[in-house]
Design a protein that fits this description.
Length: 182
Amino acid sequence: ITAENKTKRQKNGNTHHYLYYRCSRKNKTVKCIEPAVRSELLDQQLSDLLAGFALPKEYADKMRKWATADELTDKARIDGKIDGMRSELTHLSEKLQRLLDGFLDGVLEREIYTQKKAEIMSQKKTIEEQMSDLHSGTLEWVEPLNNWLEKAVSICSIAHSADQNAKKSLLLEIFGLNLKLK
């Protein structure tokens, strides 16, 4: 799609400028039969198209409320899991200390000590990785949801504005590339 400026000069001296969008006809194998579209008509069609994707503010507020409730529930559940893992880590550290005391007192042989130490260290490492995963991946869905809600609510104001660049970027985000005029 390419833009084409046309200027019409009247006999009385008035000059009118028009902007048309048409197929760029770069592909010689595909014959485009669509006529050019005036910029005002295209802008109105794009605004109507975008308005269909707008989310009413009341719906967005309700979704934010649900998301906040879910976030708090998930946070409480994850905090409970992490507390359990911390107590398990403390228990394993105590076990490791008792194992070391037994080895130092000469009650355990070196082979048994190293084998049990490796088991306990492996368990500790696994729990620490699980805790790290819970911390990092806990509520990663909240921010993208809030961004999406903001964008979905702002579609209405963008659709009725004269900012064609904002409309273009929003349409690219919704539909992607390879748009066709009809």
